[in-house]
Amino acid sequence: MNKVLQGKTVVITAGPTYEDMDPVRFLGNRSSGRMGFAVAQAAADAGADTTLVAGPCQQECPTVTQRINVRSALEMREQVMLHIDDCDIFIGCAAVADYRPAETSETKIKKDGGDLTLRLIQNPDILAGVAALPNRPFTVGFAAETNDIEKHALRKLRNKNLHMIAANQVGNGRGFDCNDNALLLLYPDGRQQSLPCQAKCSLACRLVDEIAAEYKRLQQQHT
Ligand code: C5P
């Protein structure tokens, strides 16, 4: 792979987050971490100093500069913010839980014969938080959608103030927990690009090439 990110520092989130209810139960999601790990490997292969902040997942570890394991969204945000200062490019691939239980019980919750109501509170949006930093890096998000991909992804691109968003279809065996994927890349000026369905590792290389090209284009505009 061409060293298109040589000398650049990249931080990537990947995998799901687990939000604990008690010592044995948690709220999670079906993200395998495969796409994020493939993007981390592609960024490292492209020459970037790459920090992978990974939620709980079983993927083989990519050969990155460092991997930091986290469990919850709050832990993920803490580690991202600790490593974001000198970062040139941030890529949010993780399927961060939108909500966490309002309370985490220190002991196993017992059934008492009736229904149980679980109160959830919102997690912070890590990606939007990075994009709102005064000295923000080039910020790339993902949008996994079951329907109206372009419409929902465009809204996220704008609302979270991103430089680029990679949208993909999930559900019915697509997206999560499979080897192939396709991406639709959207940019704030209305440009779009489709990366056709292919193995996640080759798709990740294409994505990293596009990220590097767009990053350099914006750098040149500002010089
Ligand atoms: O809003 P939605 O969750 O669909 O946005 C997906 C994008 O935002 C992904 O890039 C994901 O990593 C990021 N995200 C985040 N923190 C959250 C929720 C989503 O970084 N709490």
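^ cytidine-5'-monophosphate complex. Residues 13, 73, 92-94, 96, 98, 123, 125-127, 141-143, 156 surround cytidine-5'-monophosphate (CB under 6 Å). The chain is about 30% helix and 30% strand.
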